[in-house]
Design a protein that fits this description.
Elements lengths: L1 H23 L41 E2 L2 E2 L14 E5 L4 H26 L23 H26 L3 E5 L6 E7 L2 E7 L3
Antiparallel strand pairs: 1-2, 3-4, 5-6
């Protein structure tokens, strides 16, 4: 009986030590900024960070640009060669991106209001289902204040559509690193104990 108790005690101590090691080991997937990371689960020996995350050197960022310790977009100048180790992606921080975002907002608000209005009065203002021009086609016979709302809604949708189309047509490009796919090793902890994680593209 004493041998059994001793064996259980040893097993319990080993389990507690293993759990402590697991809890103490940093990982690139634990949702916590620890180990060699520059931000939560990215940078350092982990995968590169997205925009606006903390960095120390360019390789910490997916964009390859660390500006004032924050990952920033690296714009691409049209007509220049794409640097080795990079590929092009649509810019998310230029003026065209701002126009797209504003266009989506204006058009979304305007069309949503028109759509709800069409649902509220079925059959009578079905033209409101048509984007942009719908509100202008149901002006006849409406009260002055209703006409004002319809015109405002149509203008809002139209402005949103113009901004959206302009933002798509004038979109810029940014550089994204692809050379980070080389293998990286980082400590990790899992159900089987502590170990090393191998990260990269395979």
């Amino acid at each position: 009986m004493s041998k059994l108790r001793g064996g259980l005690g040893i097993a319990l101590c080993f389990a507690l030590q293993t759990a402590t090691v697991r809890a103490a080991q940093p990982s690139c997937y634990d949702g916590t900024k620890n180990g060699p990371e520059t931000d939560i689960d990215c940078g350092g020996d982990c995968i590169p960070c997205e925009l606006d995350h903390t960095c120390y050197v360019p390789r910490d960022c997916l964009s390859g640009r660390c500006e004032e310790r924050v990952c920033a977009e690296q714009p691409y100048e049209a007509g220049t060669p794409v640097p080795r180790g990079y590929e092009l992606a649509t810019s998310t921080r230029d003026a065209a991106a701002s126009a797209r975002n504003a266009g989506l907002l204006f058009f979304g608000v305007g069309y949503s209001a028109a759509y709800i209005g069409a649902l509220a009065v079925p059959g009578r203002v079905a033209a409101l289902y048509v984007p942009v021009i719908g509100p202008f086609t149901v002006l006849e016979g409406r009260e002055t204040w209703v006409k004002g709302l319809l015109i405002a809604d149509g203008v809002l949708q139209g402005a949103g559509a113009i901004l959206l189309i302009g933002g798509i047509a004038g979109r810029g490009e940014q550089l994204i690193r692809v050379d980070w796919a080389g293998l990286h090793f980082a400590p990790s902890a899992g159900p089987g104990g502590a170990g090393l994680e191998v990260m990269g593209d395979f």
